[in-house]
Amino acid sequence: MIKIHHLGHAQSERIVWLCEELDVPYEIQHYTRDPATMLSPPELKALHPLGAAPVIEDGPLMLAESAAIVEYIIVKHGGGRLKFGPEHPGYADYLYWFHFANGNLQPAIGRVLFMRRAGLAEGHPALAAVHGRMERVLALMEERLAQAAYLAGGEFSAADIMTVFSLTTMRLFQPFDLAPYPHIRDYLQRIGARPAYRRAMRKSDPDLTPMLD
Predict the structure, then answer these.
(1) Which of 107, 106, 113 is nearest to 127 (CA)?
(2) 93-130 pLDDT, tens per residue?
(3) Which residues constitute the domain of residue 162?
(4) Residue 212 covered by a domain
(5) Is 54 exposed, middle or buried (0-12, 13-18, 19+ CB in 10 A)?
(6) In a domain, 99, yes or no
């Protein structure tokens, strides 16, 4: 059975959700953020040199990095489900949006968070630049979701599992308004209606009401 080392309010929720969607047996080891720094506690840091979640154990294997874990579980335990292959008409879209989550969306939000924590004044050119980048990223997602129910097309996929954390839980750390993006908001409502997502969020972060609007 897979053991998921889950830090509260962290992207390791992706792995719990994936296992629920695929009906892959798992157990969760919960960790709580340091109340002063909001970073990982020593027990989680001891598992991996970067001290970040998610980390999984699968027998003797220990693996970090959420995208790598998602790929591993889908191929090793999920029969390839939720991953589009080259024969699928949405293959290129799947690849793009799967990697967009950690390659563009999450870093764009993170840069705004870091700049704000640095105490830059409103109107500072660096802060304006990172806000502009985040707005372009969200606008691109909005355009895509005006055309398709899910990021890779008409079918739900692991690209969606990789993406949703940044639009929901990450807003606990860097709030941003989704009112200008009605198609993203509709998309999050579709996600929130998925039984596997609801189960995953109850099990991973029972204290958290998912931020779906």
Answers:
(1) 113
(2) 999 999 999 999 999 999 999 898 888 888 899 999 99
(3) 91-194
(4) no
(5) buried
(6) yes
